[in-house]
Structure formats: structure tokens, C-alpha cells
């Protein structure tokens, strides 16, 4: 099947000048043709198809084009990031495959497989030790493609939490809790110390914190506890670690509103929206507690909480304060409607994320494949077991 399709389909690099409109139409077709009842929160990339990968120095977008008439029938994105692991302290190059789409009329023809293999070849040629991808648990077609045909192994299960800012603000901030913003240097020092205990962590957290879309990093702790290191005049960031209170939490916030907006042209006030988000609204808009017709007329964006970490017996109260604080911040961010975060199923913080009825969740599966023999032990990324304690990269959103 793949050999026959090879003569009919050309896989080439995305050309912004000639492909952007056709890629937008393809994304729309894929949303309309989806049979999934769930949704991914980052499906709408029209107008900026590279938005999910442009933050990485090494990134690529490929399209599948019919040789007969030049129609674009598939698209895939990829990038390479450096990550650290607690397994032997290894630092590896992780090749990430994102945003695979195949036109509904051209599925089951081997096009998806052809795109994945072309992207894998590029990732390997650029030194990736592993290739990684994620898909929703209920996407059976993708799961079968990656496991049965591409030999990927399940690495972890994660959950995306979505909550409207109006609901997260209910109750407000506790008068007993203090939320303070860290300097970038303080945040880097604290993350460098704490993230190394995660199964997989980001080695370039400093670059992420310095990005324009990163709004900052905050710590939350009880006023009765004094955190001397936060206000040290010696500017010794190590004091933050040595003087931390018994219970505390930290979190950073990424502004995805600029990268992901749903703009509805007045010439297509309702039809375009309902078609492209026919199943997305089932997951996200019930959380918003507003009529769909009202949502159509306004852009839609979100803040992403990342780098979540906490310690102590009263962590649950502090995590709730983090959501309330983020919601208050979101009120002043144009077009922001919801707060979102993602955690591994076995991350200790899972039990402390608010689980009220107004919060929606999307279950993800992470898959991994070793592709470069320079890493000695195949267990370096815990490929023999489930990982849940991972740091999610906000740039992937």
C-alpha cells in the first residue's frame, strides 16, 4: 500500500507562501471529518500553522501533496528539544511529532504512515535519540498507526484540565496564603533544584522563562511561615531552597492567547465556527457556561499553567490558590477564557488539582520510540514502565 501511494503522493517541506491557505482548509476538513467526541485544545492553527513549533531552534513542517493535481492531503509538524531524565541523569535529544493530519477522503491509504516516516527520518538525521508523540486516548486510528505500524511504546498517560476563569475565581484567594512573584533568576534556581527529581524534565527551562509569552513564576505559601530566601539582600538564590517553608507550591504561566485564537469573520458569523469546532465545543464550551452564539462573536484564548511543583501537608490549599491567582491574572489578559494545565496520571499533584464539575478533562497518551543507539540503556527514559512525574513543555501548546 505504501509503495503504491509513493508514486501518487509527494511529501515535501511546507512553503508558507504557497501552502498556508491550503493547510488551513485541510485543518478545517480534518475537524469536520473527525469522529472523536473529545477534542484537543490546540487544533485551531489557521493563519499560523507553525505556531506549535516555531519556538524550537530545530523544527520542520511537512505536507503531503497529490502529484496529480497538487492538492494537499496531509500535514505533520516536528521539532527537537533537549530533556533531562532521572534515569542515570541522562540528557537526550527528544524528537517530537506534532499535529499529524490527513484529509478524511484520503485516509487508510498510507499517507499518515508516509508522513510519520518522513518526519522520523528528519528527526534522526538531526540527532534525535528518541521520537515522541501524543494522541488522545479515544483516537483509535492514531493509536493503531503509532503502535502497530510505527512500533511506538506507551510511555505515559496524561490529563489536560480545562477550567473557565469565572469558575476558578469562586471563593477567591485565602487571606492566610501569600502568592509572590519570583525573579527569573530565582525561578531558574528553584526549578533547577526541584525538576531534577521528575522522570522527565526540561533542560532549557531558563529559555522558556525568558520567552515573551511566559508571564512569570510564582510561589504560594502560608503567611504564618517566613520564607527568608525570597527577600534575601545577598541575592543568593540558593537561600530560596534552604529556607523554604514546610508547605509551598510553585507554578509558571504561559500566555497562549496570542498563539491560539478563534477568530470568526463577520461574513461567516456562525457556520464557520460550528463546522470547525463541531466537536470541540462539546468539550470546552460547556465549561464556559456561556451560550455558543456568544462565544462565536469573540476570540478565544487561554493561560497554561506549567512547572507545577509543591511540597508539604497543606499542598491542596496552596494549589487551589494557584488556580484562583491565575484566574485573577487572566481577567486582565485580552481574550482569555480558561485556565489549562496538564499532569501525568501518577503525578502527586493530581489529587490536588480542583476537580469541580465545571472542570473538563482530556485524556492523552504519550508514545516513545528509541531511534539512536548512542544512548546505552533503553531504560534511560523508563521505557519499561509508566511515567507520570513529567514536566510538560508549554511551547507544545
In short:
Helix content is 27%, strand content 29%.
What can you see in these coordinates?
The protein has 2 domains: 2-156, Aminopeptidase; 162-364, Aminopeptidase, CATH 3.40.630. The chain has 13 helices and 13 strands. It is 27% helix and 29% strand. With 397 residues, the chain is of the alpha+beta class. A hairpin with a 5-residue loop joins β2 (59-66) and β3. GO terms for molecular function: acyltransferase activity, transferring groups other than amino-acyl groups. Pfam families: Acetyltransf_1 (PF00583). This is Probable N-acetyltransferase HLS1.
Query: How helix-rich are the residues, as a percent range?
Result: 25-40%
Structural shape: elongated
**Domain module count:** 2
Sheet of most strands: 13 strands, mixed
By CATH, the topology of the largest domain is Aminopeptidase
Tell me, what is the CATH class of the largest domain? Alpha Beta
How much is the radius of gyration in Å?
Answer: 22 Å
Give the topology.
Layout: H1 2-6, E1 9-13, H2 16-32, E2 59-66, E3 72-85, E4 91-102, H3 111-125, E5 130-136, H4 140-149, E6 153-164, H5 165-168, E7 177-181, H6 184-194, E8 200-202, H7 205-209, E9 214-222, H8 238-242, E10 248-255, H9 271-276, H10 280-283, H11 285-288, H12 292-296, E11 301-311, H13 315-330, E12 336-344, E13 360-370
Parallel strand pairs: 4-5, 11-12
Antiparallel strand pairs: 1-2, 2-3, 3-4, 3-8, 5-13, 6-12, 6-13, 7-9, 9-10, 10-11
Protein name: Probable N-acetyltransferase HLS1
GO molecular function: acyltransferase activity, transferring groups other than amino-acyl groups
Organism: Durio zibethinus
